[in-house]
Amino acid sequence: MKLLIAEDEVALQESIIKFLKREGFVCEAASNYDEALYKVSLYDYDVVVLDINLISGSGLDVLKALKKEGKKSGVIIISANNSLDDKLEGLDLGADDYITKPFHLTELNARIKAVLRRGKYGGDVCLVHNEITVNTEYRQAYVNDRTMPLTRKEYDLLVYFMVNKNRVLSKEVIAEHLWGDHIDLADNFDFIYVHINNLRKKLTKVAADYIKTVYGIGYRFTDG
């Protein structure tokens, strides 16, 4: 899952990103209003953690732009104070949750996971596709209740495919979502084929071949 951390306090931003990367998230950063606005317009994120008081502008205006463009990102707003008006305005604009400074990183992590459960995982900790079950809390995949050992990127790929079942995903979109925004500058995306091929080999040993190649475009996770 890919997150954007829009926070202008550099030390806090770095602490959040360091913690969330250890939790298995791909994290991108925005340090001011203009950078946050640029990134939400150009890239897609599963969750945006958005400080209301960004340098040179309001995080609420970033939220307005994100919703205007029809982006499906979950949004958690950060408020530097306990202002009820700020929180209510953010929620009215479409934010999914809010958190007030100072906060514990474990609480932020829990709120991010809750937003993902509601928005991406159908309200449950587990994703299920026929004989495959993925526990997103423990980052573990099972086939017919037996553990399927996956590398971190193979796990991330499987979750991304299951969340986007039946959608055709280009190699560029997969790379951007699982390796970060600037991967789109890579000369080629052959490494994507390697990871997908490894995941497909593991899946087909114990389950059906759900990953289909859409030639010239990318891949699609189907019912079989």
Largest sheet: 5 strands, parallel
What is the second-level CATH architecture of the largest domain? Answer: 3-Layer(aba) Sandwich
- Class derived from helix and strand content: alpha/beta
Separation of the first and last Cα atoms? 24 Å
- How many helices? The count is 8
Compute the number of structural domains.
2
Predict the CATH topology of the largest domain. Answer: Rossmann fold
- Rough outline: globular
CATH superfamily annotation of the largest domain: Response regulator
- What is the helix content? 40-55%
Mean pLDDT: 91
How many beta-strand segments? 14
Helix and strand string, N-terminal first?
Answer: EHEHEEEHEHEHEEEEHEHHEE
Q: What share of residues are in beta strands?
A: 15-25%
User: Within the largest sheet, what's the order of strands?
Assistant: 2-1-3-6-7
Structural summary, described in words:
The chain is of the alpha/beta class and 224 residues long. The protein folds into two domains: 2-119, Rossmann fold (3-Layer(aba) Sandwich), CATH 3.40.50.2300; 126-221, Orthogonal Bundle (Arc Repressor Mutant, subunit A), CATH 1.10.10.10. It has eight helices and 14 strands. It has helices at 10-22, 33-42, 59-68, 84-92, 105-119, 152-163, 171-179, 190-206; strands spanning 2-6, 26-30, 47-51, 53-54, 57-58, 74-79, 97-100, 126-129, 132-135, 140-143, 146-148, 168-170, 211-214, 218-221. The protein has a five-stranded parallel β-sheet with strand order 2-1-3-6-7, with helices on both faces. Strands 8-9-10-11 form a four-stranded antiparallel β-sheet, with helices on one face. Strand 4 and strand 5 form a beta hairpin. Helix 2 runs parallel beside helix 3 (59-68) and helix 6 (152-163) packs across helix 8. The radius of gyration is 18 Å and the shape is globular. The protein starts with a strand and ends with a strand.
